[in-house]
Amino acid sequence: LQSTFFNSILSGFKTAPKAILGTNMIAVMRPFQSWAGAMLTGNEKEMVIAAAQIDAIGRAFAEGWQMWKHNWDLGVHRKGQTYQGKFDVETDLKEWKTLSQYYDKYGSDIQQNAYGVLDKIVDFNTAPWVKYSQNAMGSGDAMARTVIGRMTMRQRAARAAIDAGVDFDDVTNIARKTEDNFRNEIFKRDKDGFWVVSDKGASMAGDEAAMTRALQENFKGFELISNIPGMKAFFPFVRTGFNYLDVTFAHTPLNIFRDKYTDLRKLASDPNPNPILLQKYGIRAEDASYELALMEGRMAMGTTVTGIVALLAMQGRVTGNMPPNKEDRDLWKLNGVQPRSFKVADGTY
Question: Would the pLDDT of 66 be above 80?
């Protein structure tokens, strides 16, 4: 029933493309936002490292597409995908299949018939043409995680080059040639020979992009929703929604009041950083400045975009939804106002 519910909710044709685009946009924006944050604070070293990561995006997506196809094929063949997705119930379904031998051996006729009927429903729910949306989203998540892992490899290579005394102008070229030296720090091979992210920091970044991160701090109590009878099927939507809100909040100036921001400022400036905090965020001491730059870049980018759109809206050059009352809607139509649009210089929406 849970699998049926997920498939029906997620079956819209726009659902998977929007989820995949959003997940991978969060992943690919990380070095750009780190570069912006480092630029604002005058941290040239972190700017160079972020620039080296930006250079790695092409290679990262090349490997990411391979992981996408691999995970798509796994889903099509009714196998568990590489990473746990937003709406996984594969473990439960696998458990269900193992019960068959016991019903055949010990079950009454009624129990065997009931199991047979439900088993056909399970087979229907796991059919590729029914589960296409979940398969696509799981594949998109795997691609984003691979991209983040590859960019983390480039980050390690660039930092090692700088520590070795390489001139800033040459860091990107050296990091491009040496990034594979750091692959085993970030990835582990799975049984199919594909590289799976194992580094804690890269895994946490992947959880953030895929909206599968466990609820943190004050919101952790919401996870108890999944323990309420009948609510287990709804919790993934709650978790995903809170994760989206959390990433949105990270692009506002209010993010400076988060514990993570305060902790990273301490870690970036402390010659003897707290190992407990480093473990909490899954980073090395030398990467604290980069993570701080990422947070500051997100705040700056979000504030800038919001400010520009607000100014355009006040000038009537950006419109939102149609007004809720009929009189105002008719006025918009009379004046040719187009909802959810930008108005360019010549008056065209």
Answer: yes
